[in-house]
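In this section we walk through a basic example: taking a raw amino acid sequence and producing a predicted 3D structure, encoded as C-alpha cells. The instruction is simple. Fold the sequence below.
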Amino acid sequence: MIRSYKGIYPKLEKSVYVDESAVLVGDITLGEDSSVWPLVAARGDVNYIQIGERTNIQDGSVLHLTRKSANNPEGYPLIIGDDVTVGHKVMLHGCKLGNRILVGMGAIVMDNAIVEDDVIIGGGALVPPNKKLESGYLYVGSPVKQARPLTDSELAFLKISALNYVELKDDYLAESDSAK
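The resulting C-alpha cell sequence is shown next.
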C-alpha cells in the first residue's frame, strides 16, 4: 500500500520493487533497483525517508523518523545509502546509514545514530541514540560495541548481498509483469 500524507506521495524509481503487503506513507524516496519486502512499514510523515540505490529493506522492518521541534528544529530524517541490506524485523528510527552496510536481523538503530560506510551490525544489536559507528568494523551487542575489523571477504560480501537482492527483486518484477 503506497499512500500520501498531507498530499505527499512516496517517490519510487521505475526499477524499484515494493511488495503489495508493505506500507509506504508520505515523504519517502527510493533509489534505482531498491526493494521493500513483505510487511515493511515506512512512515514519512513527521520528516522524510531517503533510501539509496540497490538497497533492500527486508520483511517486517519498521522505518520511521524524529519530528521537528523547538529543541531539534530539523528533527532526524531517516537516510539510508546505497547497497545497504536491512535484515528481517529491523527497526530504523531517525538515523543515518552510509553505503555498503548490513544491518542484521532484529537490530534497532535509534535517533541521530550515524553508521559510516562498510559496516556490519550484528543481529539483535541495539545502536543507541547519537552513537557513531566507524567504517570498516563489525558491531554487536546491546548496546552495540565495536567487535573487530571486517575481513576482506566480509567487505566484498556487503556489495554482493545488495546485488543478490537486486536479482531477486528483478525476478519478482518479471513475475508480476507476466501475470498482467
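Looking at the output, two observations stand out. The chain has a mean pLDDT of 96. Helices lie at 152-178. In the next section we compare this with other chains.
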